[in-house]
Amino acid sequence: MSLHSKQSHTYHHTCTHQLYLYTQDGESQDGGLVFSWAEHRVCLYLEALRRHLPRITEGGSLASVLEHCMYCGMSLARVGLDIRGLLPPIFEACVLNMFSKVSSCACQQSIA
Questions:
Q1: 37 CB contacts (<8 Å, ≥6 apart)?
Q2: Where would a tag sit more exposed on the chain, N or C end, judged by fewer CB atoms within 10 A?
Q3: How far apart are CA 83 and CA 75, in angstroms?
C-alpha cells in the first residue's frame, strides 16, 4: 500500500468514526478502540517513511515528500491526529545520511 493510500485510508476512517463516536453534547463514547487503530495506522505510516526515505537521493525530492507529509499531518490534525511533530527526526536522519554520502563522494573526488 502506498504512502498516499495509507494517508487517505487513515483520514477517511478517522473522520467516519469521529462522527459515530461523539454524542451531541460532545462526550466521547470511545473505549480506546479508535485511538488504538489510529495509533497503529500512524505507526505503519511512519515505518513506511523510515523504510522508503533512504531511497531518495536528491534534496528537492526529499523536500517534496516532506511537504506532502506535513500536509497529511495538517489534514489529520483536523480530526485530532497531528503527526507533524513525529516527522522531523525521520527526515533529519535522511538529510544527515544524504549529506554524509555527498561529503564522502566530494572528499574522494578531491583526493583523486
A1: 13
A2: C
A3: 10
Q: pLDDT of 62-73, one tens digit each?
A: 999 999 999 999
Sign of CA dihedral 73, 27, 30, 32: positive
CA nearest 13: which of 43, 45, 35?
35
Q: Cβ contacts of residue 73 below 8 Å, gap of 6+?
A: 82, 83, 84, 87
Three-class SS state of 28: strand
Say what the pTM is. Answer: 0.67
Terminal alpha carbon distance of the chain: 44
Please enumerate in sequence order all residues whose Cβ is within 8 A of that of 15, keeping only pairs 6 or more positions apart, or say none. 79
Q: What is the pLDDT of residues 2-17, one digit of tens each?
A: 666 655 666 565 555 5
3-state secondary structure of 26: coil
C-alpha cell at 62: 526529499
57 contacts 44 by C-beta, under 8 angstroms: no
